[in-house]
Amino acid sequence: QCVVRGVAFMHNVAKESAVSGCSLERGVMYHLFVYVEAGGKTGTLSNAIETIVDHSNGFSSLPTISQGPTQDGLRIQFSPLTTGWAWAVIVKADEAHTVNAANISNLKAGTGALCVQENLHGLEITNPSGLKTMRFSSCNFPMNAVHKAFVYVEGDVAGSDDGKLSEAIDVVLPPSNSFKSYPPAEKKTALPADSEIEIMYTPQSTIGSLWALAVQGSALVAPTPEYVKNSDTYLCKVGPESIGSSVLLTGCALVEDASYTVYLYIEDALSRNDGSVASVAIRTPAGRTTSVFDESPYVHGVPESSGFELRMKATGKGYAYGVVVPEGTDLASADAAIQGGPGALGSNACGSQYPRTPHTMPEMTVETMDFAGCGLAGGVTYWAYVLLCGTRASPNGAIWPDPWPCPNSIISNAVPVVVPFSAHFTSPPAIANITGDGVAVELSTSASGIAWLGIWNEATLGPEVTADMARNLTDALCSQSLMSTSTSLSQISVSGCQLLAGLRYTISVYVEAGGCAPNGCGGGELKLLQNVLVPFSNTLLAPMRLLGTSTESRVRIYVEASSVGLAWAKVVVEGPPHFHDVIEFDGHAQVICGSNFQVVPGPQELVISGCALTHEELYDVYVYLSGPMQYTDGTLSAPKTLRVAPGESNSFMPVPHVVGMSAKQKTLRLSFGAEVAGKAWASVVHSSQTEDFGRLQVIFPHDATCSLEAIEIQSGINELLLRNCIFEAGEDYVARVYLTNVRAGEDGVLSDPISLSLAFSNSLEVNPLLLQVPATDIVKMSFTPGKSGWAFVALLTPENATDISISEFVLGESDICQSSPVNVTGGIAEIVELSCGLAPLVLYKLLLYVEGGGDGTSWVLDGMLSPVVDVKVPASNTFMFQPYLDGTPTDSTVKLVSYPAASIGRMWVSVFVAGPGANGPVQAPVVTVDHLRNNENTDSIAEGGEACRRSNVTVLRLVEEIELSGCGLTRGVTYSAYVYVEDESNLGDGTLSNPVTFTVEPSNEFVVKPLLTSSTTTDGVTFSYRSKRVGAAWARIFNGHSSDGEWDTASAVKNETLARCSDLRNVDLVTQNVQIRGCDLTPNQRYVLVVYVEDDLGQNDGMFPAVLDLMVPGLVTNYFTRFPEIVDTPVPDGVTVRFTANAVSGLLWAMLLEPDGGVRDHAFIKHGENSIGNSNCKFAEIRIGNAPTPLHFHGC
Fold first, then answer.
1. What's the Cα-to-Cα distance from 1143 to each of 671, 1043, 1098, 1119, rounded to whole Å?
2. 991 contacts 928 by C-beta, under 8 angstroms
3. pLDDT tier at 399 (50, 70, 90 boundaries)?
4. Which tens digit of pLDDT belongs to each residue from 1164-1191?
5. Which of 111, 331, 337, 1115 is the most buried (most CB within 10 A)?
6. With the CA atoms of 718, 719, 720 and 726 taken in that order, what torsion angle do they form, in degrees rounded to the nearest 10?
């Protein structure tokens, strides 16, 4: 947009520079950048500085209508941002588009306006605080319409046209004349013989004119003023005529028992079609009616909540029933309510409801019907109906309805009934003042009474506030109750509210007469002031921005306030908006630093100091401006992100060094100096872990020897004491210290590595050695220490002995057996015996530890660990070769061959289950020597009886042929046989053989596995298979999928409970061609075909069930009733297949693929993709029928 170049500046001296010739638009945000360099070197570009050329004035509270509107005028309130001038106009809605920022001069002049503000030269604004009022009078608005109001404000320079134009404000005006109290009603029953209809009404004003017309049924178009005045479709019509209390339409040509509608239109004397239209429904009586209303029912007196009176006159003697129903109830429903049906309000004394004694009606006499016990609510419209019955003599001569229905009846039109409010507004509530603290409302009421004032969230409850809510005020944001009102104009108010400027609220005002019971009079009036905006007490005339470069302790902020007031500035960690409004701003507990200030109108600098921020870390800065009263109606800025300049938040003075190190006390003491108060971390690791030993590893220690975290330190010299440091002699360690200020950020300083080590307190002159061959119960060894002290000897597994440390060896729990601490003398050989209970042929590792200090009860861990000595106890007997099977096992007999190594010894043999069979999975045991040597355990898990095992039998060093019988094994199940041998000492120190695993052949199995021979249909499927032996077969179709695994046992297949359909048969050695029908399968549903074979003994010992997935195709035109099968021997040139299709006529495609070829879909086959051979080795669109069809592929 615009630029200035080459501005010279000096180091550390403030420089001001201007950019001109920009032609910037008002209200648009621009970004200003500053670039500095020195001597042609690469310089620095600043962050974007947000710049807005604002309007010369604006609104801190948007314009709203505060009083009116009436035909004469109205008042509009708003709050400007600054001093200046304001203009306002009101135009017709269809001309609102002509009011815009380009035509401000027309707005000021009032060109084309319906009305302008009272001061034609504009309203001068000398003090921008508070609400300003624009008054409109003598406007003579067209009524019954919605007009549009606009307010324009600008600064002190009049004629600049650089101000702010408001959005359009709706000005809703009532009709110029209307019907008062009650809507028009039929004055007397309209009779066909009279051909006239008389309507009574009460006008708002008698000045003006009235029109009326009657139509049969109702109008075909919406009844507008123009319709009532000018329509040529009617039964009868009058107007214009003077306004009175009733209107008579004559010459109406009425017929019996028919419905009519009378439309009345009333307006003032200006004839602008801006009045009010009302309608009255009329129904003429049937010819049998003996009495009708000479005066239709009307309300006499003022209705109360308990009841009211209706007056009427009948043309003949009879009787009447009355009822009160909700507004809108039709004639049929009202008739049913009179007869005791649903819908009637109050008791049957509310009117005279059957079977209550009816009201006797004399002839041509005004009669009053009392409605009592009605329980009506104030301000609500109800409808009353009267049923007028003619006469009929009873046997005793009385005029009485016996039985119902009453004879010759006619029901009146609805009579509106409204219980007036106990108190109502004579001057509607208008806002006198509103701030963040609360609101004051100006009003007057019809009688001295009580008021309840509430403030509601406009976005949630505002439009839904009812009279009960406005009186109870339970969910109001802020409220005040039981305030006195007066017949003269007075104010009520509520304070302490914490309202937010710029947000919309609903103000509720509810009034009742004085002296009401605690539950109210049942008839107060409610007024809602909606879309009420709280004006800003102070605003930012330009966006808040940061000044200069922020340091870890000081942040400078630029603000431009619109008014005198207060400011608060806070710094928080950068992230999503922390503060949505000033209430959150006040209550936030994680503020890093902040200050409060007094502000004046115009630009100023705010400085926050003492912050302890972290270098190169991001923060958000917020500023809140309010007026002098510190209310919540100020302005909260958007956050500004700052990054503290690079640097370190603390430094070492002097650097850390070792003060003391003790292996016995397990401590390390470090000393250092700190420039400022803050926090320190320290960590010690083994020298093998120093590759990644940086700041993160010091702050978050993992596998550290010892550490300290976030210790508070002071400015000056500090000491850190690290405890529980397991130091081992001969090992090297490294310590580091990390230091920050009190913010504990990532901008601290990390010390150089500090090397640590401990000398050995003892050594070995002679390493450990075995003094005799190890036995299962004893290991004897010797060693010679270099110094007097203490020793520790233990046996470990090879895994535990690998890379073991001194602490792990001496303090750990991985030893198989160990000695007590041994007190040793330097240069003197020591002999140690370990009683261990070792297993033969297992490798163990012997280790020795010696140290010079200690007391035999705790270890210092500053000694030496010996080299590893291998220890293995030989077995008392073993095998020359591992046992193996001799021949094929059966369900009763297993033969083994074994060759023990000892000249004489003992032997045990048993068979155990090792895997699943046809009747389900089996949990195979973990076999140990005890399972074979302990008969009790063997009985519980080994197979067969005594003949199927050997226990403690004598064996020589010869090849042993072992025959086990009577084992009772299950066909198809996997088993393992074990042999155990030892010498004659019976010490359990022999050798257990490897498992000899075998499977007993199933009683029957598939030679050819089940294969589908046709497409699956809803009726079933065909398939074939061949078994190896004579026996029985089960085939069933179930819901599901092969992956479900629910049919992997013989018993599951034999259970037909869940099967859709089945085939059970005896099988021989030929191919079984099977059809399963009557299955009632559903297209596109998953099913499985499960086939199982065994012999004819029924032992569930056959082959695992074969499971095939099935799915009935959806909407298909053809399918296979017999899948293709090869009918001759394939040759290199080709092959012949035969198949059968279902449809009488169809088309075929076929091709051959390589063995690893695949088919994606039917289009793949139609196109012959990846097929082999020439055109004779594939077929396309071959017409076929439903007979067996051969297909010869050649040239393949």
1. 97, 33, 43, 7
2. no
3. very low
4. 888 888 889 998 999 999 999 999 999 9
5. 337
6. 160
The predicted structure's pLDDT at residue 396: 47
Tokens 């609805």 correspond to: 414
**Is the CB of residue 495 less than 8 Å from the CB of residue 441?**
no
* CB of 728 closer than 8 Å to CB of 666: no
Looking at residue 734, its amino acid is V
pLDDT at 1100: 85
Instruction: Determine which of 83-97, 203-217, 639-653 has the lowest per-residue pLDDT on average.
Output: 639-653
Kind and range of the H or E element at 412? none
Residue-wise burial string across 49-85, b where 16 or more C-beta atoms lie within 10 A, e elsewhere: eebeebbbbbbbbbbbbbbbbebebbbbbbbbbbebb
Going from the C-alpha of 7 to that of each of 1, 11, 37, 41, 47, the distances in angstroms are: 18, 13, 11, 16, 18
Lookup: tokens for 996: 């000899």
Which stretch of 393-407, 943-957, 970-984, 1003-1017 has the lowest confidence by average pLDDT?
A: 393-407
- Looking at 904-1044, list the stretches that DSSP marks H as alpha helix, in order from N- to C-terminal side: 929-933, 935-941
Structure tokens at 315: 């043309």
Q: Find how far residue 1158's CA is from the centre of its chain.
A: 45
Question: What φ, ψ does residue 140 adopt, rounded to 5°?
Answer: 50, 55
pLDDT tens column, 122-174: 999 998 888 899 999 999 999 999 999 999 999 988 778 889 999 999 999 98
CB 1010 within 8 A of CB 1106: yes
- Residue 170 dihedral angles phi and psi, to the nearest 5°: -70, 130
Determine the residue type at 80: P
Q: Is 1011 helix (H, G, I), strand (E, B) or coil?
A: strand
**HEC string of 1090-1126?**
EEEEECCCCCCCCCCCEEEEEECCCCCCCCEEEEEEE
The pairing of strands 308-314 and 318-326 is unpaired
Q: What is the DSSP letter of 729?
A: T
And the tokens for 497? 């509210």
Residue 678: what pLDDT?
Answer: 92
CA–CA separation, 594 vs 597, rounded Å? 10
Write out pLDDT tens, residues 1061-1107: 999 999 999 999 999 999 999 998 999 999 999 998 888 888 878 88
Q: How high does pLDDT run on average in the chain?
A: 87
- Residue 1009: phi and psi, rounded to 5, are -70, 155
The encoded tokens of residue 161 equal 């046209």
Asked if residue 756 lies in contact with residue 782, where contact means CB atoms within 8 angstroms, the answer is no
Query: Which amino acid appears at position 483 of this protein?
Result: M
Could you tell me if 318 and 291 are in contact, meaning their C-beta atoms sit under 8 angstroms apart?
yes
**Cα distance between residue 647 and residue 284, in whole Å:** 98
Q: CB count, 10 Å around CB of 285?
A: 23
Residue 640: phi, psi to the nearest 5? -115, 130
DSSP assignment string, 979-996: EEEE-TT-SS-SEEPPPE
Q: Do 374 and 360 meet the contact criterion of CB atoms below 8 Å apart?
A: no
Nearest to 263 by CA among 275, 272, 271, 255: 275
Structure tokens given for 1064? 């059970």
DSSP label at residue 625? E
H-only helix segments in 848-949: 929-933, 935-941
Specify burial of residue 961 (Cβ count, 10 A radius: 0-12, 13-18, 19+): exposed
Instruction: Enter the pTM of the model.
Output: 0.48
Nearest to 949 by CA among 966, 924, 937, 936: 966
Widest CA span in the chain: 148
